[in-house]
Structure formats: structure tokens, C-alpha cells
UniProtKB/TrEMBL annotation:
Assembly notes: Homotetramer.
Residue ranges annotated for the YjeF N-terminal domain, each copy included: 26-225
Source organism (scientific name): Frateuria aurantia (strain ATCC 33424 / DSM 6220 / KCTC 2777 / LMG 1558 / NBRC 3245 / NCIMB 13370)
Protein name (database record): Bifunctional NAD(P)H-hydrate repair enzyme
Gene responsible for this protein: nnrD
Catalytic reaction equation(s): (6S)-NADHX + ADP = AMP + phosphate + NADH + H(+); (6R)-NADPHX = (6S)-NADPHX; (6S)-NADPHX + ADP = AMP + phosphate + NADPH + H(+); (6R)-NADHX = (6S)-NADHX
Family: Belongs to the NnrE/AIBP family. In the N-terminal section; belongs to the NnrE/AIBP family.
Residue numbers binding AMP: 410-414, 439
């Protein structure tokens, strides 16, 4: 049974209505189950094991042998109870533990009754063969790098060639932040109990968790009483347009950028804005770029500007701006950047617009969206990319508060935050979108939504969702070789409500 290719890493079951929570809130749910519902821990563990067993059989119907790797805590108990269920169904079952199990272990009694023998992991010794492997080593119970025998067992799991199901959270992954400080189980699927965990939906977690499955274990009502860390973006829906609509009512976006050699960036931004419904799109760029625009994209009104006076005359006519794609950080780009910021117009700031903001404080417009990737975010917060990726939630909060703006922290499972502390995550997107120009396309989409009258929070959320979904639709022909321009026809379908899946 081949391991890879069974699942595409993603969040196929954490969809628009799903919220995610921190481990402290999960512990609160467990206390609620114990104190209010009179549901002891072992009863919750039985529910978890039964849910995992049912899902496991439905996902891998041909499997008949199971290897469960167990740790010392409740996650290990879940795994032991699952092993007992498989043994009762006449499966071949092996259990590997980090140390001999004693009567105090939460899964000891179940294994004893089922007649399942437990082996202690020996470094360098191959794991028993099985159709499936289950990670029940730590779950959400570890927030540091695994060490010693645990790290070796995780590496042994990852070296296998059969599917891996993680219980609650891949061991070694921080369930709050998604950081992977050391060895982490690479799961093909993760069944997470009670509620979605915030660390499973963004950053490195997208590689480690595989397909996510939520099993609330009967505590759905208690979950709704909690305030989530983040919620998923809903499917993007734009209102229908009146029959008497005209281009002026659909907004006029001005794209500022395109230094020598980077005209393609503003071209992508402008085209994405048009495909996202902006009524008019102008570009303020180097004069040398204008001929290319007139030839390749006659719908865009491109004007060569040599300094602030020329840009100021354009600013009077537009609804909002997209500043930064291909702008450069030289004298020309810096002068246009200052002029654009001083306009006070609704704005999306990206690329070199962000890099200059990291170097120089300046008054910012009241309606502003920043769209940094982790490198730009690190510069804006004067820290490092590893620090950003170690806690993407903290990073997006800090950026939104420091700059009093809506912030899109790009990457796998993009996060959107605002100064009030709201955070949403994007459950769509794919690795094929990791190519130059994709960020410029997103800038154009968000800019188009801003000039069509959407608040920055709405524009950012709609824009990220449209961009990711367009990327997923375009990737049906394959992720490798995906180009930003491949998203443009998909965008048109999505903004017209023709692509709901």
C-alpha cells in the first residue's frame, strides 16, 4: 500500500465554517467534559479511539494490519485504545512504545484485555511491517523539539512507505503555532479531536499534518461557547451588479510601480485588478514600460511618470491605489511611494512598498492593506524569518497593531489580521503558487476590491480567497509550471459566482 499520493496535503475538511482553537482552550473543553458533563477522561479517550477507528476503516478499507506508536500520555492512551479495537476486529496489531507501559498508563488496561503485546522502540531497529501506521506519541502534549528515543521513533515513522495517521496533532508539531522545532511526524492525515487546532492550518503544518479531519466527540455545543483563535475564510461571494452599472461606479485603481526591468509586476497587478471587476485601471510607471502596456494590455491606461508632480495629477482621478509591485527602492520609487502615501487614498501596499516602510516611518492611509510574505514581515517587525514562522499568529497580530492596518501574512495557510485582533486563515491554495508574480496578482485583486467599495478587512479576505481558489482551479492541470497569468480566467469565473465547488 503506497503512502504518498493517497492524500493531497491540505485542509479538505476544515472549511468555511470551521474555527480553530489553542491548546489552552482544548484543555478547557476537557475540564468542561469532566466537571459539567460528568464525562471522565477515559470516556473521552474511548470516544476518540472509536472515532479514529471508524475513520481509519473508511479511509483505508483494504488495510488489515496496524502499527501504533504510543507515547506516555493521553495521546498514547488514544493509540492504545485504537490498537485494542483493531485487535478485536482480527487485525494484525503491533504497538511500539517509548518505555514499558505500566498500570498507570491510560491505555495499559485496554491492551491487556485485548491481548496486545507492547514492544519498546529500539533505535536503529526497523519498525514492524503494517498496512497503516498511527502516530500517538505526543499529540498536542509537546511544545518543544522531541529528543532522544522519541526523535528516533519519529524519524523511523517518517522513513516508512505506508500511510501515517496522526491522532490529534502530528507529534513534534506545535499545536498552537504550527512551528516544527525539531523532528515531526509527516502524516498523510490527521484526525484532530474536540476542535480544530490553530497550529494545524498555517505555515509548516500544511506539510506535516496532511488532510485534516475534525472529530468533536459530542462536545460541539461546548466548542461554540469558546472564542476561536482564528476562523476560516468563507467562500467568496460578490453581490450582483445593477443593470444600470457603469465603469465609474466600479472604481478606478491606480497601480504604482514598474521600475526598469520589472514592468511585468505591474502588468500582472493591473490585469488581476481588471479580472476582479475594477471599472478602470491606470498604471503609473517608467515611460519605457508604456509601449508594452499599449501593446499587451490596451485595457490598462499606462502613463510614464518621472516624479511626484506627474503622479499627483493622476491621484486626483482615482479611487484607490496598489503600490509596490516592481517599484524598486531607488530615488524614483521612493519619491512615488511618499507621494502615494500622502494622498490618503485607500491602498494596498506590497513588495518594495513594504520594504521602504520597514526602513522609514511615514503616516499611513486610514484604509490600508499590507500584504507581506515572511521575509517582508520580518523586515517590518525588525526580526528574522524563523521568528515569523515560529508563530505566524503572533506575527500577523504584531504587524496589524504596529501599522494600524489589515495585514495579509502570505504563505501556506495565509493569515489575515486587523488591529482589533481578528484573524482568519485561508484553507485553499497549493504549492504551485510559489512562483514569482503570484503576490503581484494578489495585490491587484485586493486593490480592485478596495476601489469597488469594500472595507480593507473585506477586501483582504475576499482577495485572498479568490486568489487561492483561482490557483487551485488553475492547478488542475498540475502544480508545477503554474503561472500567475493562469489564474486570470479562473478569477473571472469566481468573481461571477460560476466556480462554486
Amino acid at each position: 500500500m503506497s503512502r504518498r499520493g493517497i492524500y493531497t496535503a491540505g485542509m479538505t475538511e476544515i472549511l468555511a465554517s470551521r474555527a480553530v482553537y489553542g491548546t489552552a482552550q482544548i484543555r478547557q473543553l476537557e475540564r468542561h467534559a469532566l466537571e459539567v458533563l460528568q464525562l471522565p477522561v477515559d470516556a473521552l479517550m474511548k470516544r476518540a479511539a472509536q472515532a479514529a477507528w471508524q475513520r481509519l476503516r473508511s479511509e483505508w478499507p483494504l488495510a488489515r494490519s496496524l502499527l501504533v506508536c504510543c507515547g506516555p500520555g493521553n495521546n498514547g492512551g488514544d493509540g492504545c485504545l485504537l490498537a485494542a479495537l483493531a485487535k478485536a476486529a482480527d487485525w494484525q496489531v503491533d504497538v511500539i512504545a517509548l518505555a514499558p507501559l505500566t498500570a498507570s498508563h491510560p491505555g495499559f488496561e485496554a491492551l491487556q484485555k485485548a491481548g496486545v503485546q507492547v514492544q519498546v522502540h529500539v533505535p536503529g531497529q526497523p519498525l514492524p511491517q503494517a498496512d497503516l501506521q498511527v502516530d500517538a506519541i505526543f499529540g498536542i502534549g509537546l511544545n518543544r523539539a522531541p529528543e532522544g528515543l522519541a526523535a528516533d521513533l519519529i524519524q523511523a515513522l517518517n522513513a516508512g512507505t505506508v500511510p501515517v495517521l496522526a491522532l490529534d496533532c502530528p507529534s513534534g508539531l506545535n499545536a498552537d503555532t504550527g512551528a516544527a522545532p525539531g523532528a515531526v511526524v509527516r502524516a498523510d492525515a490527521t484526525i484532530t479531536f474536540l476542535a480544530g487546532k490553530s497550529g494545524l492550518v498555517t505555515g509548516q503544518a500544511r506539510d506535516w499534518a496532511g488532510r485534516l479531519i475534525i472529530e468533536p466527540l459530542g462536545l460541539e455545543e461546548a466548542v461554540t461557547a469558546l472564542s476561536p483563535v482564528a476562523t476560516a475564510l468563507p467562500w467568496p461571494q460578490l453581490p450582483p451588479r445593477p443593470r444600470a452599472m457603469h465603469k465609474g461606479r466600479n472604481g478606478h485603481l491606480l497601480v504604482v510601480g514598474g521600475e526598469h526591468g520589472t514592468g511585468g509586476a505591474v502588468h500582472l497587478t493591473a490585469m488581476a485588478a481588471l479580472r476582479s471587476g475594477a471599472g478602470l485601471v491606470s498604471v503609473a510607471t517608467r515611460s519605457e514600460q508604456v509601449l508594452a502596456f499599449n501593446t499587451r494590455c490596451p485595457e490598462v491606461m499606462a502613463l510614464g511618470v518621472n516624479g511626484p508632480p506627474a503622479l499627483e495629477s493622476m491621484l486626483e482621478k482615482v479611487t484607490g491605489l496598489a503600490v509596490g509591485p516592481g517599484l524598486g527602492q531607488g530615488a524614483w520609487g521612493h519619491a512615488l511611494w511618499l507621494t502615494a502615501l500622502d494622498s490618503g487614498k485607500p491602498m494596498v501596499l506590497d513588495a518594495d512598498g513594504l520594504n521602504m516602510l520597514a526602513q522609514e516611518s511615514h503616516a499611513l492611509p486610514g484604509q490600508l492593506v499590507l500584504t507581506p510574505h515572511p521575509g517582508e514581515a520580518a523586515r517590518l517587525l525588525h526580526t528574522t524569518v524563523p521568528d515569523i514562522e515560529a508563530d505566524r499568529y503572533a506575527a500577523v497580530r504584531a504587524l496589524a497593531q504596529r501599522y494600524r492596518a489589515v495585514v495579509v501574512l502570505k504563505g501556506a495557510g495565509s493569515l489575515i489580521g486587523d488591529p482589533d485582533g481578528r484573524i482568519v486563515y485561508c484553507p485553499w491554495g497549493n504549492p504551485g503558487m510559489a512562483v514569482g508574480g503570484m503576490g503581484d496578482t494578489l495585490t491587484g485583486i485586493i486593490g480592485a476590491l478596495l476601489v469597488q467599495g469594500h472595507h480593507p478587512w473585506e477586501a483582504a479576505g475576499l482577495g485572498v480567497a479568490l486568489h487561492a481558489l483561482a490557483g487551485d482551479r488553475a492547478a488542475r492541470a498540475g502544480e508545477r509550471g503554474l503561472l500567475p497569468t493562469d489564474l486570470l480566467p479562473e478569477l473571472r469565473a469566481l468573481v461571477n459566482g460560476q466556480a462554486h465547488a
